[in-house]
Give the backbone structure.
Amino acid sequence: MDVSASEGRLSSGAKAFIARRHKLLIDGHWVDARSGRTFAVFDPSNGQQIAEVAEGGAEDVNRAVGAARRAFEGGPWAKMKPVERGKMVWRLGDILEAHADELAELESLDNGKPVRDARTVDLPFGCELLRYMGGWSTKICGQQIPISAPGEWHAYSIREPVGVVGQIIPWNFPLLMAVWKIAPALAAGCTIVLKPAEQTPLTAIRLGELIVEAGFPPGVVNIITGDGTAGAALAAHPDVDKVAFTGSTEVGKLIVQAAAGNLKKVSLELGGKSPAIVFPDADLSVAIPGTASGIFFNMGQCCTAGSRLFVHERVFDKVMTGLAGEAARLKIGPGLDPETRIGPLVSDEQLRRVTGYLESGRQQGAEVVTGGKRHGNSGYFVEPTIITRTTPEMKIVREEIFGPVVCAIRYNDNDLDRIAREGNNTEYGLAASIWTRDLGIAHKLARKLKAGSVWINVHNFNDVALPFGGYKQSGWGREMGYEAIELYTETKAVAALL
């Protein structure tokens, strides 16, 4: 393994972690894959191998599900009081916070994202989410229900943990997505088999070490690294009660098919092609940097990225000039460089995908305002790109690119119904943003947009208390907020004739 290019920027803790053998966490123990196979992990800033990780398969998934079932049905976790469970989830948040610098470095090295973003966005959000969800452990309640049938009745409902949960997470926010999944499941009392993306397994493994350190009983959280074979086995496993997936819509549909065998519960957070709509009265000193961040943050590798930018013709040229200036100021480089604002894409596969969309746009007649090509000759870097003169039929307008590429679309209409139809003209419905000083207009349009999150004068905003999820082919269910607890519980009705 060659980590020389990044070694000088890593702390001793991060270096020590990289140097370890990386195994599977099953039933509280770190074990090799039954097959003995491993796979390589690469630094996307230079394409060099940095680690080898155990390649779990169907047999390992079966072992992990068995451990999760035993932990759910009996043992200390099953008997733990809600307040004790909540304290453990909260404690994990404290432990993450204590290791935040190291985790941010590992996330940057593995995923490519700027270490500043990992440290100031991903880690604080994850710590706060664990604490928020830990607080829900003692507040998961049913209801006393009045009965209209003849006789005297005592009737009530109970919310109970759904059981063994398979969780499959993506590579764009590896650690944060792991926390998004495990925090509400643990708070509700479930047990977990977590499968991180094969491109970015390192922080999930380190999280597993911290979960053991926090004192969670064996089998409560199991971590299986591997490729799609392991994910498919987890989604189809007959002893998994629920599967939660974040990733592409295409893979989400495969998850649904795999889950049909035992009709397990399914929640999905999938793709997006989110509109950002700039009105002529918008405060451009806010809207220009805001929409730039909405597409260029995390190199555009956000399911909510504001990749379709609708700008009124009266301010279109000013916004394009401003956006181009914002793009020019973004330093491109390795994520571990503290001055970097645009890191590499996660993999060579993703680089080829994004540059393929750029070429498709050119061939179909789109115009590149700035960017539009690969940056440098090593690593997986793409320039922040603004594209105009598009049509709704173009692939770059219709399909999720998942890169730092925005399609800017001029409009000249003041009819909110027509504007909403354009914004909704996509198979997705994850997010949207509205930029205007007129809050009456903003709230009227927010009601017309078919998106799970609508932001006014901001983009890519999330909070631990806000439910998050999508309409249409952007998924099923809501994460964060109390709605996330509902994803991991079943409702039981009890009626007694007195």
Notes: The mean pLDDT is 97. The longest helix spans residues 115-136.
